[in-house]
């Protein structure tokens, strides 16, 4: 099967030029979106003692933040479709900054849930989705590489924030640290400013349009507006912003079903890595350094995964590559309790960084490969709103296991099984999906086969 098609964007993506500046902006924006909730775990043990709360209660801070980031996906999609990526990312940076500043005055754990979790979490949603979407507007041939480089922002920023947060806490306490972080995340506004509208080549003339403008969607909307029935108009708006027809898309449903299970065990091992090390008697800086090791490995694995995914051997069957990476995560967590002492945790962090980086580099590329670049914005919005449930519940459930057994190993066993099951599911179902796609393409007339969109799988 050839590489995915451009998805009927109505223009040829430049695959370079200012697109690399856009990748830099996405690198920063995506980096803060994923790294920020993880880096805050450095403060968990101290905040837990300050407010006298349990492991599961403190885990809700990251869970609410990540869940808000995912739940804000559809709203972010609507704003991107209406205004483009640049202003949405800049507003998101301001929201994260405001949330952290308000949290620094918190008097209870509930206050942190509201400020860090909800306000900053929704701000991260406005950083994540526009950055993912605009890459698909600027790149097609080099899209796996561009996505891999952009997703590298998470480990790069995490490897910086982890030791920085420990230093800030020792120097200024958690309240002062939150105020400094409030200023640091304003860099997301700078990242947003780089995301200018793509220049489109159409009929030999260069036009600059918002990357959110989709010709087909506009035409469909205009037709709907000519109808007299108000219900028809409402249905047209729903279809434009959410594209519920995706729930009839075989590849999308496979992706969604596996990811819903996977995300119950995806973030908890990272959230509890530093607390686990501290519980084993390892000092604070060495525990924080485990996150830096994890992030450093992750940092190199993501672009390498993008390069591999862009090869002629991998890209036609990239879904198998993603399935393999999910299985690797599960095996790492199952073997983690066998690691003894700090050296064992370092080895685990290295292997976990490899497996985690592979999943993150491919996570959105495989979705775009399945549904096509044109439908990606609405697809990722639907995926994130559904995934916010397991993202929200995963770490607290893991924390409850630690509270119940007084030992982290059962939490890592559970996460290993939770990751292994969807990995195997992906292998089986994508084999079925590829087989059905081949059958459907062979059944098409020769001309139709050449013009069909293989990117919409």
TrEMBL record:
Q: Does the keyword Cell membrane apply?
A: yes
Q: State the compartments where it is located.
A: Basolateral cell membrane
An annotated Gene Ontology molecular function:
symporter activity
Q: Where is the composition biased (Basic and acidic residues)?
A: 220-231
SUPFAM superfamilies for this protein: MFS general substrate transporter
Q: Which first-to-last residue range defines the signal peptide?
A: none
Is Iron among the key words of this record?
A: no
Fetch the Pfam families from UniProt.
Answer: MFS_1
Alphabetical keyword list: Cell membrane, Membrane, Symport, Transmembrane, Transmembrane helix, Transport
Catalytic activity from the UniProt record: 3-methyl-2-oxobutanoate(out) + H(+)(out) = 3-methyl-2-oxobutanoate(in) + H(+)(in); 4-methyl-2-oxopentanoate(out) + H(+)(out) = 4-methyl-2-oxopentanoate(in) + H(+)(in)
Residue limits of the Major facilitator superfamily (MFS) profile domain? 19-434
Membrane topology for this entry? Answer: Multi-pass membrane protein
Q: Which domain of life is it from?
A: Eukaryota
InterPro entries, per the entry: MCT, MFS, MFS_dom, MFS_trans_sf, Proton-linked_MCT
Region (Disordered) spans which residues?
A: 201-231
Where is this protein primarily located? membrane
Describe the family membership recorded for this protein in Swiss-Prot or TrEMBL. Answer: Belongs to the major facilitator superfamily. Monocarboxylate porter (TC 2.A.1.13) family.
Which NCBIfam families does this chain map to?
Answer: 2A0113
Instruction: Write the protein's name.
Output: Major facilitator superfamily (MFS) profile domain-containing protein
Task: Give the originating organism.
Answer: Takifugu bimaculatus
């Amino acid at each position: 099967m050839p590489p995915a098609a451009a998805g009927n964007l109505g223009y040829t993506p430049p695959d370079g030029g200012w697109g690399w500046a856009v990748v830099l902006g996405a690198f920063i924006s995506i980096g803060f979106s994923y790294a920020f909730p993880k880096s805050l775990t450095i403060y968990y043990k101290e905040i837990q003692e300050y407010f006298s709360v349990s492991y599961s209660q403190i885990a809700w801070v990251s869970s609410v933040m990540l869940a808000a980031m995912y739940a804000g996906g559809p709203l972010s999609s609507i704003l991107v479709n209406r205004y483009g990526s640049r202003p949405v990312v800049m507003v998101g940076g301001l929201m994260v900054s405001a949330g952290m500043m308000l949290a620094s005055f918190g008097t209870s754990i509930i206050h942190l849930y509201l400020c860090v979790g909800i306000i900053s979490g929704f701000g991260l949603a406005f950083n994540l989705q526009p950055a993912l979407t605009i890459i698909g507007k600027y790149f097609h041939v080099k899209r796996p590489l561009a996505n891999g480089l952009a997703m590298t922002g998470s480990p790069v920023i995490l490897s910086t924030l982890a030791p920085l947060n420990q230093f800030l806490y020792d120097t200024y306490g958690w309240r002062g640290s939150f105020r400094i972080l409030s200023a640091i995340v304003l860099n997301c506004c700078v990242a947003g400013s780089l995301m200018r509208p793509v220049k489109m080549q159409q009929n030999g003339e260069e036009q600059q349009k918002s990357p959110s403008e989709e010709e087909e969607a506009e035409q469909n909307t205009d037709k709907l507006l000519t109808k007299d029935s108000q219900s028809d108009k409402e249905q047209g708006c729903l279809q434009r912003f959410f594209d519920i027809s995706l729930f009839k898309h075989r590849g999308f449903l496979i992706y969604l079903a596996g990811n819903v299970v996977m995300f119950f065990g995806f973030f908890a091992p990272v959230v509890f890595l530093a607390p686990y090390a501290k519980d084993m008697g390892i000092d604070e800086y060495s525990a924080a350094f485990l996150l830096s090791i994890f992030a450093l490995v992750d940092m190199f694995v993501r672009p390498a995964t993008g390069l591999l995914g862009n090869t002629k051997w991998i890209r036609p069957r990239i879904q198998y590559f993603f399935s393999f990476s999910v299985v690797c995560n599960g095996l790492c967590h199952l073997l983690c309790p066998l690691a003894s002492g700090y050296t064992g945790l370092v080895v685990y962090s290295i292997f976990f960084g490899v497996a985690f980086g592979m999943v993150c580099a491919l996570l959105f590329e495989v979705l775009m490969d399945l549904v096509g670049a044109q439908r990606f914005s609405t697809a990722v919005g639907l995926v994130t709103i559904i995934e916010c449930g397991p993202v929200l519940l995963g770490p607290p459930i893991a924390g409850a296991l630690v509270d119940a057994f007084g030992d982290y190993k059962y939490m890592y066993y559970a996460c290993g099984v939770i990751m292994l099951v969807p990995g195997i599911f992906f292998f089986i179902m994508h084999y079925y999906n590829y087989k059905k796609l081949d059958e459907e393409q062979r059944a098409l007339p020769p001309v139709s086969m050449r013009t069909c969109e293989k990117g919409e799988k």
